[in-house]
Design goal:
Layout: H1 3-6, H2 13-20, H3 27-35, H4 39-54, E1 57-61, E2 63-67, H5 95-103, E3 111-115, H6 124-137, E4 142-145, H7 148-158, H8 162-172, E5 176-177, H9 187-193, H10 200-212, E6 216-223, H11 229-246, E7 249-256, H12 272-285, E8 291-292, H13 296-299, H14 301-307, E9 314-317, H15 324-328, H16 338-347, E10 351-354
Parallel strand pairs: 1-9, 1-10, 2-3, 3-4, 5-6, 6-7, 7-8
Helix pairs in contact: 3-11, 4-12, 5-6, 6-8, 7-8, 7-10, 10-11, 11-12
Amino acid sequence: MDFHASSPSPALAHIAAKVERGERLSREDGLALFACPDLTAVGALAHAARTRRHGLNTYYVLNRHVNYTNVCVNGCVFCAYSRERGQAGGFELSVDQVLAKLAESPVVPREVHIVGGCHPDLPLSFYLDMLSAVRAALPEAGLKCFTAVEIEHFAALSGLSTREVLSALKAAGLDMLPGGGAEIFAPEVRRRICPKKISGERWLAIHGQAHELGLSTNCSLLFGHLESEEDRVDHLLLLREQQDSSGGFNCLIPLPFQTENSLLKVPAAVTGVDILRTIAVARLLLDNIAHIKAYWVMLTVKLAQAALYYGADDFDGTVVEEKIGHMAGADSEQGLTRAELEAMIRGCGFTPVERDALFRPVRQEARA
């Protein structure tokens, strides 16, 4: 593929040459991509890198989100989802209620995504029982559950190490960790938006432990709040460094900050142009992470479709019900059908490929 032809901007010529030769981009390259005035050139370069890796394939999964509680001790300033114990609007689901939600799903999920707040009272046995029950109910589904922040919380309540908690959860049926809780690694920004949450170093360390135990994980970037473009680049490079070390990240999920219901006031809401640029820079810097997600829940469907031309190759999935982003102000649909997902992907000129939780393609003949 001719990367120079795909990226005509003189400002990006040296970066295009490096990508074409398969050379790793530097921090300075990442900053140059953010500074380049020609967004379409940045996007074209990211699209070329995406198609070299995935062709026109765009992945999706039949998945079901379950948020088991919004009661949380962390009180992050940016979060519109969490409630204190006893506060109006707080909820917590029992294991039976989690199972009932899964039983109500319009499709049998290949991926079950379970996350919640850091509840002050629920013991580790609750989470182990939940995983065992979900595994028994859906033996073929991939269980993607509990962020690194939750893992640290479980360890603190149980008196175990995070590695011991991960081992126990894996034995109960856990397959992988979602990417939430990474937010932005910049310590000063993190202190301002989520001062009680674990540090970026701890987040990376817990994912490293999961990888060592054979658990795949995703990773994320929350942007468009108080961080700088330098913070975004540094965040991506720390993820790349962790991937070099432990090798277990499947996918990056870029998450634009939702301003509508947040107590965190920012100068201006993140724009579609900034979102597409950030996705493109992520694709170009993360040469060792296979997938970049266009998470339609946070992007909206239309912007997620555009993101497929800016480096993203995964469209997430059916979701069915999502609370965290929508309570923050996301105005996207609650769920999509397989037919809708495939039509949206095909409508952009791409080839839909159904996958499982670990990004393994599902054979056409195996589809229900």
